[in-house]
Amino acid sequence: MSTTHLLIELVLMPLVAFVVGLAMLLMLRKIGARLQRRVGPPLLQPLFDVIKLYSKRTQVSHGLLHEAGIVVAVGAYVAIETLVPVPGMNGIAEKGGLILLSYLMMVPSLGLALGVGQCANPNGSIGLSRAMTAMLAYDIPFMLVVFGVAWQFQTTNLVELVAVQQAGGIATWGIVENPLLAIAGLFGLQAMLGKQPFEIYVAPAEIATGPMVEMGGKFLGGLFVMQSFQFYTAGVLYTTMFLGGGENWFTFLIKIFVVVAIPLSVAFMFPRYRTEDMVRLVWKWPVILALLGLVVAVQ
Amino acid sequence: MNGEVGRPISRLLADVDGARCERKGDRRVRIDATPENLPAVLELLKGRAGYLHLSAITCIDWMDDGEFELIYHLWSYEDRNLVSAHIRIPREPGVYLSVYDLFEPAGFFERDIHEMYGVFFEGSPDQEKFILTEWNGPPPMRKDFDAEGWVQGTFQWEDYRPEWLQEIEEKGGGIAIKPEQARANTRKIRGWKQ
Amino acid sequence: MNDFPLPVRAERSNPLARVFDELIDFCRARSMFMLHYCTGCGAIELPPAMTSRFDMERLGIQPMVTPRQADILLITGYVSIKTLKRVILTYEQMGSPKYVIGICSCTVNGGMYWQSYATAKKLNEYLPVDVYIAGCMPRPEAVIEGLRKLMGEIKAGRANSWERYFREYDRYLAAQQNLFGPNWQTPTDIIGEARDYQLYGPGTEGRHTELLQQHQVPLQPLRMTLHSDVEKSS
Amino acid sequence: MRPENYQAQSHPPSHEYELNFGPNHPGIEGNYALQVRLHGDTVVSAHADGGYLHRGFEKLMEGRLWIQNIALVPRICVPDPVPMEVCYSLAIEDISGLQVPERAKWLRVLQLELSRIAAHLFYFGGHAATTGMYSPSFWGVADRDLILDRFEELSGGRVYHIFNIPGGVRRDIPEGFLGRVSALLDYLEARLPEYDDLLFRNQVFVRRSKGVGVIDQQQALAWGVTGPNLRATGLGFDVRRDDPYLIYNQLDFEIPTEDSGCCWARTLVRRSELQQSIRICRQVIAALPDIGGPVRAPIPNPLAWNVPVGESYTRVESSKGELAYYVLSTGGEKPYRVHVRGPSAMHAVQVLEKMVTGGRLEDVAQIMFSLDACPPEVDR
Amino acid sequence: MSSDIDYKDAGSILAPLKNLRFFAREPVTEPLGPRPAAENYRGFHVNDWELCIGCSTCQKVCDNAAISMIHIPGLPNDPVKGVRDHRPAIDYGRCCWCGLCVDICPTGSISLTREYVHTCTEPELDSYFVLPDPNGMHKTHFPKGWSKTEQNDLLDHDRQPMAEMAPEARIGDFAEIVAGYTDQQALLEASRCVQCGMCHDACPTQMHAPDYIRAIWQGNVELAVEEIYRTNPFAHVCGRVCTHKCEDACSIGRRGTPVAIRWLKRYAMDALAPAKVKKIAAKGKSRKKSGRKIAIVGAGPAGMTAAFDLIKQGHAVTVFEALDQAGGMTRYGIPYYRLPSESLQRDIDIIVSLGVEMRYRTRVGVDVSMAELEQEYDAVVLALGLQLGRSTRIPGSDHVQVRAAVDLLRRIAAGESLAVPDKVVVIGGGNVAMDIARTLARLQKQQHGVVGMTVCALEDFAHFLADPEEVRESGEEGIEIIDARGPRHCVVNDDGTLGGLCTWKVLSIFDEQHRFAPKFDESDERIHEAGMVVESIGQMTDTGLLGDELTEALEWNRGRMKVDAFGRTSLPWLWAAGDCVNGPDVVHAVADGHRVATSINEYLTQEVAA
């Protein structure tokens, strides 16, 4: 693979991720609208929002870390996007692997923590502590699932993972081979995306949207971008691990949208748990499922 | 049962000097008490007749008499009867006893009356301002506070100059009677033509 | 009223820049975040306007929780003096460009509380207002029509009243001081921002900003108290 | 002002900080503020701060004619305006001995109950939103809007009906109105199972609200809690039945109660009340065609109307609790004093402060909404 | 009862997911754009300018102070009809759309529409101040929303019924027919007033009717009398027999019966003890004597009003009256059952008690000449009245049993006994015709036991001159009124006695130029049998007393003295007032008295200054 080719892929992959992510943001709002019996936003709404936020005249910054935090968060996701294989583009996925990815996926939250910490808004700080707690909660089942998948397919290389699954057709997909892990993964996905019932750190009625409280203009725009990356990444990762990745762009897009649509639909049906309830729940059922799945995988 | 309610109360109050009791309606009894015996009356009502619920305390400013009237509305869940105990206290200095130790809801009402009328309740837990924290004027509900005058002196009104009005003014017309002139408070019926 | 008439968006000569400006105005119009603040009774018609029946999100309008995130401030009816202070603080914290919508009669000329000692009468004395919506209270459809009017104004580059707050700050401050007393101050440095945005005009500073500077107390940063601190101080 | 043996409160040996809930905060109902002192996630003390919606109604009313005040009163509680109008009208009728025609009484009950349903639908959405679920508020507000449509048809106004005036109501019902209300009630009843699935049978919601913000019956009585909040502690007191007004003593309805006094119980009580209100509305719809006659007693020319000397303490059951008006007339063309006792005056200040204290940060908003405290009633 | 969801029910984690079925359901969202509002909707105002009379009642009921009355030149402005060129303008920065203005509007002109969208930017804020017209706020048609119906009408359209004697009881008797209001009735009637002031504008003497009505409503009769005496010293009289132009203008009368302004005045006057009235009347009387002397010829309402004003201004006033008692036509022209002389006397007594010098039985021109008056007094007022009856001059009208109505009335009032034949015909359709017919009918009843009275009026009932209530009451008393009959000749029997009156049917009274030129249908001829024919077709002034010299010196206008706006004749010292200038009407005469008094006072004070 030529360097130019790689460079093009490295640029293209985050771009695609951004576009698809925006579409997922739209899907989130459309799903909500449908379940709430209304029409919902126009198609380009997420794009309008982001452009508008970046074009605000006032950009209130609370200091260097505030700005750096967002950069770290978005930057981490840009890096992540180059590590997940999509049809026709592997980027540097072969050199990364599941373990690196798992680590990288914590960075945006930490970056956010960095930025929010400087805002000195108590609501932000509470939200942050909740976000960290939530991360602590969902990381355990998530890591178990990652291990399980790696054991199942005897590889941590995402490209290989995809290749193995595609080679055998649907029968070799993770979801068929090890449904327990897939269900645990779905739980983890719900928590990772921070959607109800695990939406503990945004919580407008409790802590005025928590970490976002002091974010305006480009900072909020950054968070929007980050969220779209997050949806995309979650969808792609799950698809890669359990749904055999993308054979072509068509099936790939269908798969990731369906995967993301599940937690988003569920989100509109539930309130949020209290923090300790969430931790208890997430450490209980998904962990049990993931452990069982691990046992299955080991056997 | 309804007709019976009045009598026990009057029997109850027989020992209290100067408290008169009068039935006003199906479930309404009025008691005229004095500032001295009101705590005793309330205590009797709560302790012996089951008037547990202090529905409200109303304050009325009788400026011309130089008095405040305080009305304690009590409800009994058992008798299903409402008793309004009226007392009058001098407007100056406007101090009375709190009944917070008998009825906790009194805390709010006394605080409210304190900021709206300037009546001070001795023993009330909190008489800080609540609603009017940003208000520096006199207690506004007093009859001698002319709210409308204050408003007229403080605020300006929108001076509309729509095109139709300008046209009419060119023709010699214009606003004949301003709304303020027609108000019930200030209306001068004299001199229609002027 | 308009001592300093606001220019419509200045047309730039570069056609690309012009397209860019128009694109941005278009996006601003199509994506309005509304501050979720119920200042008065007209707010009761906002939930219907936001929710399924009238669905503001069709127009790209969604409620936002904090002033930092919001673009439009809806003043839904009367503002009591106590609320007005918070409204001004909120307005100053919102990011420019920002738009104020005055809903109901009360924001125009006092409404039915015109004799009340507790409410402010004319909103546009204290804040620049972009669009008014008549009604007591206006129906959700009227609110949405008002928002569409605002969208039209933004698209046409006319909704620039926020600039007036910087250009004529002295006038607004005068009304605020008249109502809140000479000690009135807000944490936002409007004059500095005006300079920063190149919106410093002849009316930015004046008698009343001088008074403000005399009284200005440096703001204390927010502090979380530790138990030990309390003990030391007491 | 403080007792002499006052001592400074000792601070617990840990981090404590203050958090402002409101006035601009999604967790606050309306324009209201709560300063909460927190220790970790636990509320150490709470301090209510009102007055953001203060308009000085009681002062305004003293300066306006009896009839002019009917435009003013519904504004005291925006989500549930009908009880305000009715209570004010009842007080004046009581003082001046106006005999309200039978038909007007039934029409008032219909309005009161529709308004209660609307307020409760609003409430469910609000309560759910404080726990992070927004769909019920989208549904609830949209369904409430259908009730507002009927109100618009009846009175010409969606929210401020200004339809009840001393002596009766301003107009008779339009043609076919009862049929449309009946269809609406059918619709709402059909919707209820869907609400049950979404909200009332939602395990997460039950878990969030059960056992939170508990108040027992003794405390409730001592703190002056009324309405559904009191009934959620097991005391079946309802002004409609125990201090009846209009024609409530001719109607067949039940007073739902719960025993535990927590947020969940309060919501359940309101849910049952909604069913009872539908039941009352059906009775009114069935009875109304047989009740003829005028809808308003003749009242004097409003510009020259002296209500005779007298006083009245009139109470009605609003969706939030015991609403009372004290009206005093000295025989003039304006009231000498009107005192509004909004139920929320108790709930949103003293009760809320006490209930929040010791609770959790995430429950502050939920407790406030579950009390259905309406700030404009407090501020007036 | 506990709800059908048990408290112990922990719910289900799957139940909420059932609602995923809403993916398959259509949204309930309404299409963008305003929906049509409900039929009763309270939206922006419209005002039918044709119906609106500018009474400003809407403004008074609006305590949001949202309504301003705008004076619009060019619109009809006729105080007598009760129309002002004012229209309400509404400040939507104040309005709360309660619709009270609609409910109270006396004409029903104002209503609310189903239009509810108005938005504007800050520079366009003037659009919040709106002058509602029939076209709507944005000149687009919207159907009416909340508008006037019988149910939401807040005004009381029905007058308090006035107790009257039954026709059977009153016909044989001269007792006053109308009983007057009780306290309660007066209060209720007074409460109907909306204080629009139309009556004030319509009244010739501009009585402050809204003020005294309000005072009556407040139970303050003394204040009411005080308000009445500001403009009318003939209140006892006007409270009974005024032509009440005010009630024609009354805005309540637009859709109901007007407020009984006249009866309320009567109530106030009767309710207060005469001593108190005297005290009120004397209020404001100048302590200083000006030393000027004024002569007033004629003690009718005009003359006595002028005397009242002038004496209060400190001048010395002498009234010359040819007859025995003061009152003029109010005493000698109006029958007792409508105006008892005691009531009149109370008015006269009050004026006289202020110090007016009365010279009864002094006929100017006979007992004292005008020239003498000119010399002795600084100013002279001629308040001669109309006491000569006009004649139809038809054939036979010179018969001895063809009499003039005013003449007969005067005689009856003076107490002369009169033999009335059992059949009488009255020619004329005015109030005087009704008076004489009803008076004579009473005498017939007393003398013959039956009423045989016919009134032949030139006008048809649609254009009748007499008050409708007079016509009604006459009918009740058994008087036959035949409209549109023109008298042709009086039938004189061969024995020289009067046989009756021959009339023709009237086709039209005026020609195209609105000149008096009656046309008759000669085929429709009727003979009304009568032993007496009374002519009541108008009165004239007896100007003979002026003397030839003065008559020459004065300027005349169609047989009446030419006067300026203040009643001053072409001679500087001579004023004329009352019926002799204006035609017959009490309240006009009172107004005239005031005008003249003002003019004289000005003249005299100017003279002093000069």
List the helices and strands and how they pair.
The complex is a heteropentamer of chains A (299), B (194), C (234), D (380) and E (610).
Chain A: H1 3-35, H2 45-54, H3 64-83, H4 93-96, H5 98-104, H6 107-119, H7 122-153, H8 158-167, H9 174-177, H10 179-192, H11 204-207, H12 217-242, H13 249-267, H14 275-298
Helix pairs in contact in A: 1-3, 1-12, 1-13, 2-12, 3-6, 3-12, 6-7, 7-10, 7-14, 10-14, 12-13
Chain B: H1 2-12, E1 20-25, E2 28-32, H2 38-49, E3 53-62, E4 67-76, E5 81-90, E6 95-97, H3 106-117, E7 120-122, H4 147-154, H5 163-170, E8 174-177
Parallel strand pairs in B: 2-5, 6-7
Antiparallel strand pairs in B: 1-2, 3-4, 4-5
Chain E: E1 45-47, H1 57-61, E2 67-71, E3 86-91, H2 100-104, E4 110-112, E5 119-121, E6 129-130, H3 167-171, H4 183-191, H5 198-202, H6 209-217, H7 221-229, H8 235-241, H9 245-249, H10 261-271, H11 274-282, E7 293-297, H12 301-312, E8 316-320, H13 329-332, H14 341-353, E9 357-359, H15 370-376, E10 379-382, E11 388-389, E12 402-404, H16 405-413, E13 424-427, H17 431-448, E14 453-456, H18 468-476, E15 480-482, E16 485-492, E17 498-510, E18 516-529, E19 532-535, E20 539-540, H19 548-553, E21 556-557, E22 560-561, E23 574-576, H20 579-582, H21 586-609
Parallel strand pairs in E: 7-8, 7-10, 8-9, 10-23, 12-19, 13-14, 13-19, 14-15
Antiparallel strand pairs in E: 1-4, 2-3, 3-6, 11-20, 16-17, 17-18, 21-22
Helix pairs in contact in E: 4-6, 4-10, 6-7, 6-10, 7-10, 7-11, 8-10, 11-14, 12-21, 16-17
In brief, what are we looking at here?
The complex is a heteropentamer of chains A (299), B (194), C (234), D (380) and E (610). With 234 residues, chain C is of the alpha/beta class.
Explained architecture:
The complex is a heteropentamer of chains A (299), B (194), C (234), D (380) and E (610). Chain A is an all-alpha fold and 299 residues long. Chain A has one domain. Chain A is 74% helix and 0% strand. Chain B has 5 helices and 8 strands. In chain B, β3 and β4 form a beta hairpin. With 234 residues, chain C is α/β, with parallel strands linked by helices. In chain C, α1 runs antiparallel to α5. Chain D is an alpha+beta fold. Chain D has a 3-stranded antiparallel sheet. The chains are: A mainly alpha (299), B alpha/beta (194), C alpha/beta (234), D alpha+beta (380), E alpha/beta (610). At the D-E interface, α4, α5, α6 and α10 of D face α1, α2 and α4 of E. β7 (131-133) of chain C pairs antiparallel with β5 (119-121) of chain E, so a sheet runs across the interface.
